[in-house]
Design goal:
This protein is of the alpha/beta class and 236 residues long. The protein folds into 2 domains: 7-102, Elongation Factor Tu (Ef-tu), domain 3 (Beta Barrel); 119-229, Nucleotide-binding domain of ferredoxin-NADP reductase (FNR) module (Rossmann fold). The protein has 7 helices and 11 strands. It has a 6-stranded antiparallel beta sheet, with helices on both faces. A 5-stranded parallel beta sheet has the order 9-8-7-10-11, with helices on both faces. The protein binds flavin-adenine dinucleotide. The site of flavin-adenine dinucleotide has 27 residues, from strand 4, strand 5, helix 2 and strand 11. Residues 16-114 form the FAD-binding FR-type domain.
Length: 236
């Protein structure tokens, strides 16, 4: 996706896209996890489970964020943001408050959810909490076996519980998921049945790549992987 474009092109595309969305409510789940409920005319948007919208975060910059849930009749959609403070997107989202208006695109992307698959292992970090929350109702309703693995800053270790997530393990963010040997020894690989699971890997691109390599080498499961951010790279 294009993460940067000239201001006049952005203005022109935005005017063609129709009305902007308004911040209805914004709440900090932890000091660095912010949940925002937006309102506006979303009737022409296409929603898919786990799809990501592009948000205009400055005159010239655009960033991807996962839509957690939507109510088309009421014109409401929700997103969970990691306020990491390292980029223009994070800093802009931190400033958002009730009544602010902004451009949010229709969500798009690869569908990470297949109702026919029995087991799901979903791995990610703070940027993946929205994806996890979007998947949870479907995983429960369709009675999948599922487990979430999160790699989180110490201050965010309770965020999954505060967001209502279930069946999760929170690991400290200290490089564990860059260690192939350590990943191979994770409990999920020791329990029968998980070899045929779908593995949805998102978040830190380096961790995603390492986890994916372990799964590929062991020829375990089907892997759906997408790095959401990469150290040193702007606007992945
Ligand atoms: C499909 C998709 C869905 C996504 N969904 C979400 C979502 O729902 N919620 C969410 O918060 N993010 C989500 N992201 C990730 C988000 O788009 C990136 O974190 C993005 O880089 C943030 O933009 P920025 O301007 O703040 O930082 P950038 O300008 O893009 O990056 C500047 C620097 O900040 C650092 N950085 C970027 N992200 C992080 C981070 N999370 N933690 C620590 N350092 C970081 C990097 O070192 C980078 O060099 C998603 C990404 C994709 C591709």
């Amino acid at each position: 996706m294009i993460s940067r474009m000239p201001k006049w092109v952005g203005d022109w595309l935005e005017s063609a896209a129709g009305p902007r969305l308004t911040v209805l409510e914004a709440a900090y789940i932890t000091p660095t996890i912010k949940k925002i409920r937006f309102q506006g005319d979303i009737s022409k948007m296409n929603f898919l489970i786990g799809g990501a919208s592009v948000i205009r975060v400055s005159d010239t910059d655009y960033r991807n964020y996962t839509v957690v849930c939507q109510d088309i009749e009421k014109g409401i959609l929700e997103i969970i943001f990691h306020i990491h403070g390292n980029g223009v997107g994070s800093r802009y989202i931190d400033t958002l408050k009730t009544s602010d208006e902004l451009y949010i695109s229709s969500p798009r992307g690869r569908a990470p959810y297949d109702p026919k698959v029995k087991r799901y292992l979903i791995y990610g970090d703070e940027t993946s909490l929205g994806l996890a929350c979007s998947l949870l109702p479907f995983l429960k309703k369709n009675e999948h076996h599922f487990h979430f693995y999160f790699e989180l800053d110490e201050a965010n270790k309770n965020a999954p519980r505060l967001l209502g997530l279930e069946n999760f393990t929170a690991f400290p963010k200290n490089g564990l998921f860059n260690n192939e040997k350590w990943i191979k020894d994770l409990p999920v690989f020791q329990v029968a049945g998980w070899q045929a699971a779908n593995f949805v890997l998102t978040g830190n691109a380096t961790s995603v790549q390492t986890f994916r390599k372990v799964l590929k080498n062991a020829t375990i499961g089907k892997v759906i992987a997408q790095g959401y951010w990469l150290e040193g790279k702007k606007g992945l």
